[in-house]
Write a structure and sequence with these properties.
Number of strands: 0
CATH class of the largest domain: Mainly Alpha
Order of helices and strands: HHHHHHHHHHHH
Low-confidence stretches: 217-221
CATH topology of the largest domain: Tetracycline Repressor, domain 2
Distance between the termini: 66 Å
Largest sheet: none
Length: about 220
């Protein structure tokens, strides 16, 4: 892409354009401005504009990288394409897509995980994980608006983060350890969701003082 074609890009567009190439360069230069400048040179973006696009440094670069993967995932695995699959298979495919998307940049991923684990970055890292988990659940067809909305995303976010860590250091053939780890975690979540559904159903079948008092206060019309 030439500089003429990138002149009118917003900073948000510049971040998304550069993010994958920054990740590629980060394997050698780390998540630094050197990687940003390398990506800018490759894409034809003005280096000054590229530097301005990442005022928060490494975490801004990692944020843009994860956001670019979110976009790729939505393009390749839209809800209409995977909606007829069992829910566990939808989640497995979505997580696996993300692993495949960053697979060529595992050294950059290892460096990114180290940066996100720094105390000053934990809150931001949690936000990125939540955003990715939310993107996956939406593509999987989740429409929950009650507390399930939050528990599902918190659970998937923790699974995804743990799987990324295993993936980043997996030396097994065909990444067998990562695949087995992911399958075990998804199976655990499915069992938990089934148990939670039974618990809620049983709760609704039993006497509830709160519901009884509520009905006294607001009797049916």
């Amino acid at each position: 892409m030439t500089a003429d074609l990138t002149t009118d890009l917003t900073l948000a567009e510049v971040r998304l354009l550069l993010a994958p190439k920054i990740a590629r360069a980060a394997a050698f230069d780390g998540w630094t401005m050197a990687a940003v400048e390398m990506a800018a040179q490759e894409t034809g973006v003005d280096p000054g504009k590229a530097r301005i696009a990442f005022p928060g440094g490494a975490m801004d670069m990692i944020d843009a990288w994860t956001l670019s993967v979110d976009g790729q995932m939505a393009d390749v695995l839209p809800a209409g394409r995977i909606g007829n699959l069992p829910i566990r298979e939808r989640i497995r495919r979505l997580v696996q897509f993300r692993l495949d998307a960053v697979g060529a940049d595992r050294e950059a991923l290892r460096r990114a995980l180290s940066i996100m684990a720094m105390p000053q970055n934990l809150a931001r890292a949690a936000q990125l994980g939540w955003r990715s988990a939310d993107a996956m659940w939406r593509l999987a067809g989740d429409v929950a608006t009650d507390y399930n909305h939050y528990t599902k995303r918190a659970t998937l976010g923790s699974i995804y983060a743990a799987t990324l860590t295993v993936f980043a250091h997996d030396t097994s053939e065909d990444l067998a350890e990562t695949r087995a780890f992911l399958d075990r975690r998804i199976e655990g979540v499915m069992k938990f969701e089934k148990a939670k559904a039974r618990l809620l159903a049983n709760r609704d079948m039993h006497f509830s003082p709160a519901r009884f008092l509520g009905r006294l206060r607001y009797p049916p019309q």
